[in-house]
Amino acid sequence: MNIGVVGHVDHGKTTLTSKITGQATDRYSDEIKQGISIKLGYADACFYKCKTCKGIQAYGVTKKCQLCGGERELIRKVSFVDAPGHETLMAVMLSGATLLNGAILVIAANEECPQPRTIEHFSALKMHGIKHVVVAQNKIDLVTKEEAIENYKKIRKFLDDEGYKDVPIIPTSAHFDINIDALIYAMLEYIPVPELDITSPLKMRVVRSFDINKPGSKVESLKGGVLGGAIICGTICEKQKVWLYPGITKPIELTVESLNSNGVPFKKVHAGGLIAIGTKLDPFYVSGDQMIGQLICEEGSKPLMTQELEVKYSKIERLLESNKEPLRCGENIVLIIGTAAHLGTIQKIKGDILLVTLKNQAVYYKGEKIAISRLVNGRWRLSGYAETR
After folding, report:
1. Angstrom distance (rounded) from CA 370 to CA 364
2. Nearest-CA neighbor of 112 among 51, 74, 158, 68?
3. Peptide bond into 114 cis (omega under 30)
C-alpha cells in the first residue's frame, strides 16, 4: 500500500519519513541545497510487532525489539510518498495524491493551524476520496505543554469541520524520534490494507523515470531506461508486453525487462506499493523524470487520448483565495490527470461543464477525477476538481 506524507512547507514531512523508513527522500542536489522537497520522494518501510511485549512500544521498524531484545514479526510493508509542501510545487503534490491509499498529515505544533498548504493538501486528499488519515502533530519539542494542547485543539477543530472526526492526532518530534512507535501503531490501526484489484487489466501510473547508467559506461554495458510508479490495478510480469501512453511521439509497445522494488527483484508484481520497471527505452528519453505522467497498460486497458477535454467542474469552497473570481473563457488552468500536469485553456463554459483545450496530449479514462488549479498572484493554486466525461 502507498501512504502519503503531506502538509505545509517545513513542518517536518521529510524528516519524519526518514525516521520511519531510514531513508532520505531528498536525493536531488537542488533539494539538499535548498532544504526543501522539490520532487515526490519515495521510501519503503516494514512495520514489526514484538511477539512477547505489549503496548505501543512493541511496534517499530526494526526486527529487534527495543524493549526486550527479542524478535519482532513482520506486520506490514508500506511505500511512503513524501510530497513537497512549498506553494510553488502544488502540482507535484497533486500528481502524487492519485497513488495514495492513506496519508500522514504533518502539522507543526509551533505554528498556527491550519496553514494554507495544510488546507490545500487536505482538500486534495478529500478530493481523491482518501478517508484513512493519521495526523502527526510534529515539533512538540519546540513548544510548552500548554501550547501543544492549544495547538491540538485547533487541529481537532480543523479535522472535525472537514468531517474527519475519527482521525487520531499523534504528538511527535521527528528530530528526537519521539512517538514514532505510536505513529506506526496509529497507521496500522487506522489505515487498513486496501482491497487490491489484481484481476482487471493492468493500469500503472508513472511518477519517476531515470537513466541508471553511470557516466563513462561502455556502450555494450548500457541499460535501458527505468520507469517507476504504482500499479493501480492488475498485475505485471517480467518479459510481458505492455503499452506506454501517450509515449514519445505516439504510444509505444515495450517489453518489461525487469521488476524491482527497493533493491529487491521480482518476477511478477500486483497492485499495491511502488515498483520500478526496467525497459529497453533509450535512456535519453527517460532521464530526469521526463516520463512522469505516462500510463503503462495492456491491450484491454488502453486509455482515451485527446487534446480537447470536456469535464464537470466542482470548486472547493474552503479555498477562498483561488475562488474569489469565477472561471472565465480564455483562462489558463492546470489539470492534474493521473500523475500528469497539463496546461489548458478554457474554451467554453456551460453551467458546471468546461471545455478545455490542452497544450499536450492527455490520456485518461471516463469518470476519472482530476484536480484543477488556477493562477493566483503568480502561483498555481488548487481551485477544485472535475470528472472526465
Report:
1. 10
2. 158
3. yes
Kindly state the DSSP code that residue 71 receives in the 8-state scheme: B
Cis ω before 246 (30° cut-off from 0):
yes
SS3 at position 153: helix
The DSSP secondary-structure symbol of 174 reads: G
* Cα 35–chain centre separation: 20
Distance set, CA 3 to CA 43, 255, 387 (Å): 10, 29, 24
pLDDT tens per residue, range 326-379: 999 999 999 999 888 899 999 999 999 999 999 999 999 998 888 898 988 888
Q: pLDDT tens digit string along 52-79?
A: 998 898 999 989 888 888 899 999 999 8
Question: What's the grid cell of residue 124?
Answer: 486534495
Nearest to 316 by CA among 122, 105, 88: 122
- Whole-number Å distance between alpha carbons of 241 and 255: 5
Domains in the chain, ordered, with CATH? Answer: 2-190 (3.40.50.300), 203-301 (2.40.30.10), 304-388 (2.40.30.10)
Q: Identify which of 243, 212, 206 has the alpha carbon closest to the alpha carbon of residue 225.
A: 212
- Strand 72-82 with 2-7, pairing: parallel
The phi, psi pair for 60, rounded to 5°, reads 180, -175
- 81 or 355: which leads in pLDDT: 355
Query: Which of 188, 138, 202 has the alpha carbon at shortest distance from 3?
Result: 188
Nearest to 310 by CA among 346, 352, 354: 354
pTM: 0.85
**What contacts 27, CB < 8 A, 6 or more positions away?**
41
Phi, psi (deg, nearest 5) at residue 22: 75, 10
**Residue 41 bridge partners (DSSP):** 82
